[in-house]
Each structure stands twice: as C-alpha cells, then as structure tokens.
Amino acid sequence: MAQDTAAPDPGATPPEAPPGGAAPPGAGTAAPAPARLRPVPLVRTAIPLVVGVVLWFVPPPAGVEAPAWHMFAIFVATIVGVIARPLPMGAVTIVGLVATVVTGVLEPAEALSGFSNTTIWLIVVAFFISRGVIKTGLGARLALFFVSRLGRSPLGLAYGLAATDLVLAPATPSNTARAGGVIQPIVRSISSSYGSEPGPTSRRIGSYLTSTAFHVNTVTSAMFLTAMAGNPLAAQLAGDQGVDITWGTWALAAIVPGLVALVVVPLVVRAIDPPEVRRTPEAAERARTALRELGPLSAGEKVMTGTIVGLLLLWTLGDALLDMSATTTALIGLVALLLTGVLTWDDVKQETQAWDTLVWFAVLVMMATQLNALGLIPWLSGEMAALVGDVGWQQAFVLLTLVYFVSHYLFASNTAHISAMYAAFLATSIMAGAPPVFAALVLGFISSLFASLTHYSTGPAPVLFGSGYVPVLRWWRTGGVVAVVNIVIWMGVGGLWMKAIGMW
Questions:
Q1: Cβ contacts of 193-196, under 8 Å, gap ≥ 24
Q2: Which residues fall within 8 angstroms of residue 272, CB to CB, at 6 or more apart?
Q3: CA 470, 476, 480 angle in degrees (round to 5)?
Q4: How far is CA 411 from CA 81, 388, 438, 451, 485, in A?
Q5: What helix, strand, coil percent values describe the chain, rounded to 5?
Q6: What pairs with residue 4 in β-bridges?
Q7: Taking the domains of the chain in order of start, what are their residue ranges?
Q8: Residues contacting 225, CB < 8 A, separation 6+
Q9: Of 215, 120, 243, 92, which is closest to residue 485 (Cα–Cα)?
Q10: 450 near 444, Cβ under 8 Å?
Q11: Which residues of the chain have pLDDT under 70?
C-alpha cells in the first residue's frame, strides 16, 4: 500500500535524555512523523467484490460444475477490478490469485502455475530489450531519420512516424512506450514549431499528427506477436485450445493487411481531420540537422541494431529451422545486451513495467487456463455456437468478430478484453466451423485494432489524447471511421491474403 511520509519539523525539540544521562538513539535529530496510510477507494473496491460475491452464490447453469462457476466468479471480479482500478492492475490480480487459493477453488501450485509460462517470459524479456532501444537513443534516431526523408508534408510526416513505429514494434511490446516515449515527443515538437498548440491552433497540424500516431500505433500493435503485451496472451489462450501460433505465423499473416493499413489510415485521418498546414519542409530540415548533431551510430546503437536484426531473423526462422522457441530467442538477445554492456542488471531490475506485466499476465493466463480446464469455456462456447448455428461459418465468424470488436467500448484495456472474451469467442468460432488458425489470428489482430474506438481504450490512448490536440467528439468520430476501415482491410484484404498462403 502506498504511503506518504511527512517531512521532519526542523524546529522540533529533541527528546529528553533518560535517567543516567544516556542519550536516546537519534537524539538531537527530529523524529519523523508517523506514516500516513492511503486506503484504497471504498466504492471502487466494493464494485468487484460485490460482483464476485453475487456470482459466487448464483446457482451454476446446467452443465457447469461448481468449481468452474466459482472460478468464473473470481475471474469476473478480477476483470471488473482491473477496470475499476481500486489498486494497480498487478495488485488487483494478486488479490484474485489469493482468492482462488483461500476459497479452495485451486491448490497453490495451480494458482502459481502461470509464472512458469514461457509465453509470459517472452513478453517480459521483450520489455527489457525495448529498454535498450530507448536507452541507446536508437528509437529517437530512427524517428529523425524517417522524418528527414519523408517529412516535407503532413502526410509525409505521418508516414515517417508510421515507419518509425513499424520498425520499433517487433522489439517493443509496450505500445505505450512507443507512443509516449518515442512518437509523442516528436509530434509535440513538430506541432509547436508550426505554432500548433492545444486549443484554437490545434488543427494547424497537431491534431492530425496526434490522431495519425494513435491509429498507426493500433495497426503496428496488431502486426507482431511481440508488438503489444496482450498478443502473447491471445496466442496462449489459442494454444490452450490446441491452436499453435508462432511469431513467424503471426507476422506472415499480418504483414500484408498491416502494410495496407499503414498506407491507408493516414490518408483516412487526413480526410476526416485535414491539417491546415500543407507543406512542412522545415520539419525535414530540422530532422536532418538533428541527425548531423547526433553524429554516427554509437557503439550501443550498433549493438542494439544488430541485436534487433538477429532477433527478427531468429523469431521468423528459428522455430522452423533451428527448433528454437521465441522465448529462447528473446533470452539470447537479452544476454547479448547484458554481455556487451548495452543493458546493466540495474536496468533490468528497474524495468518496473516488465515485472508488473509478469505478475498480472501470469495471473490472468492462469485463470483463463483454469476456466478452460474446468469446463466453463467449452460450455460457454457451446451456448454461443448454438445461437449462430443456423448460418455458415463465414457469416457466423464475421458476426462474432464484429461483436468482439464493438464490445471494446466497455473496456479500458486490451488485455482485460482479451482475458474476458478471446477464449470464448475463439472456441465459438471453431465450433461454428471457422478454420482454427485463421480464427485465432483474426481475433488476435482485432484485439489490437479495436483500441481505435475511444480515448480510454488502451495505454497509448490517454498518452496521446492527454496532449490536448484532439477533443473527445473528434477523437470518437475519427476512431469510428478508422475502425470501419481497419475491419474492411484486415478481414477483406487480410482474409484474401491468408487464403492465398493457405491459412484457410
């Protein structure tokens, strides 16, 4: 629990010496004031608790055993807690984990099983690697390079930022770090240089670049297994149903619709929210000047570049040619960065987002796995499949995908949405006749793309929305249009591409 410590009073009187003349420990210095506790918000705490208790005592439906139903009650309460946020996400999931053990639903070994999951460690290690990208300055250099080459117009700037995001995405599972740590500062700098500030001048260029940066981020997050923290969770949930998704399989299926979307989305945003500035040659020139000031690649940047290239090659080919898992590849990359001094062990220890992800990711994967093992997911999928059983699998899958997409209006986290609904929708799609790998991948892509809908949908949303360039109504309007465009591209072009490569 977080605590505040009051500063000592410099005018405080030192404590008196006890009989015998011995001074008490610390005599002559002011004693610190007692720590002031900061209790959790009662209403936010009560909401998930009430939901969980009510569900616990509701009689389970026919076909569902009591342990499965009780696991479901704890799981739903945990997801509601993630949304209500009485505590940080990791703390909420730990409460859920403890609840599964205290109530006797799971044994401690079962409750802690998620911490040994290799998929979880893949994403954790990828966080460490992405720290090297930012620490060495390679991310900023890439952004300046693309802006210097493409930034003669607002559309060119948008494509330059998109190219930066695309290059960084495979090795940066925190889409928030890409958006907030690399892209947003450059957007802010360019906007200010053209006199575009939040408010009346936002539409000069700031609004357009901010919107484009966000919607491009949702696309790059969908393109690689390691580009968004929730993607490996989707792959793990698919694996629990016997559908194997490798890093290379995901990237191959996503590359064509992803590149098409990266070309189309900046054009669509420009049509909806056109910038008043038409030409930006000064931005390209300033980027070239900044690159000259940076000088040649530093030793750290060279090592980082080589490591990323090696990771991409091994992630793409290692599983097929070398029988090397994606997690093993990531660990090799981390060791290379540690041995060369690009990262220190202190860097690893201080990457708090990685360790936080390990905790909540492990708990959510464990809960989802147990729901499947206890029979809740198969039962729920059977009930949903019965509702769409009278139509062909193509129509059923489109309907299920659209429902899955639009339901993100109810969520403030991609990962929470995936945890709550991905497994059931995948199982239902397979029952309806959809090819398993095709269904798993499309729902995986959608699990990033649905973030385009709102300003609270995922981590990068409040980062970019908080800059103040895009008001809420314009954000939602643009998001709605981009959502439709993405659905058409990823299910239309993507569906045809996946058929061409034999995935259905």
A1: 193/282, 193/283, 193/286, 194/277, 194/280, 194/283, 196/277, 196/469
A2: 211, 477, 478, 481
A3: 130
A4: 12, 24, 25, 9, 21
A5: 70, 0, 25
A6: 36
A7: 42-114, 118-343+375-500
A8: 231, 232, 235, 245, 246, 247, 250, 251, 315, 326
A9: 215
A10: no
A11: 1-35, 318-321, 389
The pLDDT of residue 415? 81
Q: Say how far apart CA 229 and CA 41 lie, in whole Å.
A: 27
* Closest C-alpha among 424, 402, 394 to residue 495: 394
3-state SS, 178-220, equals HHHHHHHHHHHHHHHHCCCCCCCCHHHCHHHHHHHHHHHHHHH
Residues sharing a CB contact under 8 Å with residue 258, sequence separation 6 or more, in sequence order: 219, 220, 222, 223
Contact 253, 163 (CB under 8 A): no
Q: What is the largest CA-CA distance in the chain?
A: 93
Stated pTM of the model: 0.74
The C-alpha atoms of residue 51 and residue 66 are separated, in whole angstroms, by: 17
247 neighbors 226 (Cβ within 8 angstroms): yes
What sign has the CA pseudo-torsion 69, 74, 243, 392? positive
Model pLDDT, residue 319: 62
How many beta carbons lie within 10 A of that of residue 478, not counting itself?
23
Q: How far apart are CA 400 and CA 371, in angstroms?
A: 20
Contacts of 260 (CB under 8 A, 6+ apart): 489, 493
Q: Three-state secondary structure along 299-345?
A: HHHHHHHHHHHHHHHHHHHHHHHHCCCHHHHHHHHHHHHHHHCCCCH
Amino acid making up residue 240 = D
Task: Report helix, strand or coil for 36.
Answer: strand
Q: Cα–Cα distance between 310 and 320 in angstroms, integer? A: 15
d(CA 175, CA 179): 6
Position of tokens 């005599």? 27
Q: Angle at the Cα of 398 (from 392 to 400), degrees rounded to 5?
A: 100
Tokens of 354: 């990685």
Q: What's the distance, Cα to Cα, between the start and end of the chain in Å?
A: 50
Per-residue pLDDT, 100: 96
The crossing angle, in degrees rounded to 10, of helices 247-272 and 436-449 is 40
